[in-house]
Amino acid sequence: MKSESIVFAVAGMCFGVILGWVLASQQAGRAPQAAPPAPAAAAAPQQVPPLDEARVQELKTAIGKDPKNAGALAQLGNVYFDAQHFPDAIAAYEQSLEINPNDPDVSTDLGVSYYYTNRADDALAQFERSLKMDPKHTKTLLNKGIVLAFGKEDLRAAADEWKKVVELAPDSIEGQQARRALEGVAAAHAAGNTTNQ
Questions:
Q1: Confidence class for position 51, pLDDT limits 50, 70, 90
Q2: Which of 65, 59, 98, 108 is nearest to 80 (CA)?
Q3: What's the pLDDT at 190?
Q4: What is the CATH number of the domain that holds 42?
C-alpha cells in the first residue's frame, strides 16, 4: 500500500469522526454553514432528515409575496440542504446571493452545496468569494480546508487553512475542529512515515 493511501485512510477516519459531529450539531442548531462530508468510506452512516415540506411551502409563499427576500431564500436553501436536496439548495442560495451578494454565510453554504454535488472547483471558487467578503470567516476557512483535503487531496494546503482557523479563533468550535483535523493530518503523516521505514 502506498504511503499516500495510508495517509488519506488515517486522515479520513479522523475527519469522519469530526465531520459526523459537525453535521449532527449543525443540523440540531442549524448554523448557517455545514462542513462537507468525509469520503464515503470514512464517514459513519447518518440519518438524513426528511424534507420539511410544510416549511418549504411556508418559505415559498413568503418568497412569492416578496421575491427579493434574500433571507427567506437562504432559509429555503437551508431546509433543502438539511434534507440533502443539494441541487435545490444551490438554486435557493444562488438566488439569495443575486439579491444580497455580500453574505459570506450564504456564500459559504453555496460552496459546501457545490462540494456535495462533486463540484470541488466551484466550491473552492465560492469560498474565495466568501473570503473576499470576510477574510477571517472561520467557517469558510474550515470548509475550504476540508474541500482541499478530500476534493483535491491536498493535505498540505488543507492544513494551511486549518492553521489560519486556529490562529483566528482557537477556542471556537471551528478552531477546535481545525485543531483536531491538524492532529489527524499529523497522525496520518506519522503512520505513513512508519510504513516507509
A1: very high
A2: 59
A3: 73
A4: 1.25.40.10
